[in-house]
Amino acid sequence: MKKFFVAPLLFAFLAALSFVPAQAQKKNVIDEVVWMVGDEPILRSDIEAEKINMKMLNMGFDGDPDCFIPEQIAIHKLFLNQAKIDSIQVDDIQVNRFVESRLQYLVNQAGSREKLEEYYSKKYSQIREDLRHQVKNNNIIEQMQNKIASDVKVSPSEIRKFFESMPVDSLPFIPTTVEVQIITSKPQVSMSEIDAIKERLREFSDEINSGKRDFSTIARLYSDDRRTAAQGGEYGFTSKSVLESDFAGTVFNLTDTKKVSPIVKTEEGYHIVQLIERRGDLVNFRQILLRPAIADSALQNSISKLDSIKTLIGDNKLTFEKAVDFFSDDNNTRNNQGLMVNNKNESAFSGSSMFTYEELPQDISRKVYGMKKGEVSAPFIMTNDKGVKEVAIVKLKNITEGHKANMNADFQKINELAIEKKRNEVLDSWIRRKQKETYVFINERYRDCKFKYPNWVHKDK
User: Fold this and answer.
1) Digit-coded pLDDT (tens) for 42-64
2) With CB atoms counted within 10 Å of each terminal CB, which end of the chain scores lower, N or C?
3) CB–CB of 426/432 below 8 Å?
4) How far is 136 from 130, CA to CA, in rounded Å?
5) pLDDT band at residue 97, thresholds of 50, 70 and 90?
6) How far apart are CA 74 and CA 194, in angstroms?
7) For residue 459, is pLDDT > 90?
């Protein structure tokens, strides 16, 4: 079941985040105001741009795009008009954080800022401003919708009635999910390797501070951070809260854009940093990351350690949970009996201990696939989310095979669907009422459209 008021209403927002070639955006359009919704205009160019973007994103819709698209934009405008009346505000800091994060993603896709500007036929500053406008409007609309539907609740009887009314072929398919416990062992890195890494970073710092070499050039050539190396080490605007504390302290204490920070250690390795720009509580910087190499002998020691632990568990001399307490180096799961938590925001299981196989880290997914409930794996080498090699054993705590949703196993999911349906009905009624209360002007060429909401065109117009 699709969330009508989420997907279609966000198509303009999604399009703004998509990677659309400049050639598609250069299409000549004679611009004019073709709709007015309250005091919000809709331009012909807005409609044409969305038509191109939706085609690029393979987003389907019902009927004529010259009718469907402006109606969706007009619905946006209704919510924005009401938000002005209700003085809905958004957190500009949160908006800026999202925008800078998304811009960095787009730059990475394009290969450079220059290529991104070429694709969009706009200066980087204009791309940022357009994206900021779209993100801010999206947040306002979301808040407005939440306010309108804030009192939506469903009773157990309504949930059951909703479930019984669903055709069998419309019941959502719940994919196979697993719950996984993990114990990790971080191989020891030799002091000689750490000293060599630090010496190399000091050499880089001396060359940059003396003007002999450019920070960006060294980052592109030598940094072990794949995400930032291609951008000359540029991290993108970020807040202190998303960085490790020691690293954040170093970055946010920088004041000179020409100098290089002292060496700082994180879970990823060893870094040197250079300030680019500070903007309020956000900072943009360059970094060079070097990860110490892990010797094969160190990996083998960790494998032997976890193999012994697995034997103790198999002989019932130690529970997996106790082994987590005594031996695991995984800070994220050690206080949770080793149970992994799904942190993927886009997942239906986000925040829970359930994962589809695709949502697990690749190394873990390969190991878990085919295991039986309660089984403990052999030790294996994996690369963690910091890009660092470590050794792990995992236990398949539980597995729920894929199935059609049912009331016994999937009450929470059905509850969410019932609430979403009722919420959409409330928003649908609000749109129909607001249509009649809002001044709307539509160019003649759009008046014969078969709209989902027919009251855009009033009889007296």
Assistant:
1) 999 889 888 877 776 677 777 78
2) C
3) no
4) 10
5) confident
6) 60
7) no
| Integer Cα distance of 184 and 303 in angstroms | 10
Percent of residues, the chain, with pLDDT higher than 70? 92
Report the distance separating Cα 302 and Cα 306, nearest Å: 6
H/E stretch holding 262 reads: none
Cα separation, 177 vs 402, in Å, equals 7
Q: What's the confidence (pLDDT) of residue 458?
A: 63
Q: What are the strands, taking DSSP E only, across 280-429?
A: 282-290, 380-383, 389-400, 403-404
Give CA–CA dist 449/442, Å, rounded: 11
> Got the DSSP string for 97-122?
HHHHHHHHHHHHHHSSHHHHHHHHTS
Contacts of 162 (CB under 8 A, 6+ apart): 154, 414, 417, 418, 421
Over residues 239-258, the mean pLDDT reads 92
Q: Give yes or no for a contact between 20 and 127, defined as CB atoms under 8 angstroms apart.
A: no
DSSP calls for 2-64: --TTTTGGGHHHHHHHS---HHHHT------EEEEETTEEEEHHHHHHHHHHHHHTT---SS-
Judged by DSSP in three states, 377 sits in coil
User: Number of C-alpha atoms within 13 angstroms, CB side, residue 230?
Assistant: 13
> Residue 35 is encoded by which pair of tokens?
């709709």
Higher pLDDT, 58 or 81: 81
Q: Within 13 Å, how many C-alpha atoms sit on residue 83's CB side?
A: 21
**C-alpha Rg value of the chain to the nearest Å:** 27
99-134 pLDDT, tens digit each: 887 887 888 778 788 888 888 888 888 888 889 998
Residue 27 has pLDDT above 50, yes or no: no
- pLDDT classification of 273: cutoffs 50, 70, 90: very high
Task: Confirm if 132 and 95 have CB atoms less than 8 A apart.
Answer: yes
What pLDDT is stored for residue 423 in this prediction?
Answer: 96
How many helices (H) and strands (E) in the chain? 16, 12
What is the Cα 10 distance to its own chain's centre? 15
- CA distances 365 to 351, 361, 369, 380, Å, are 18, 6, 6, 12
Q: Which residue type is seen at 53?
A: N
Spatial distance between the Cα atoms of 22 and 89, rounded to a whole number of angstroms: 33
Q: Could you tell me the pTM of the whole model?
A: 0.72
Distance CA 416, CA 353 (A): 18
Q: Contact, 173 vs 403, CB < 8 A?
A: yes
Return the number of other C-beta atoms located less than 10 Å from residue 358's C-beta: 10
List, in sequence order, the alpha helices (H) in 332-398: 362-368
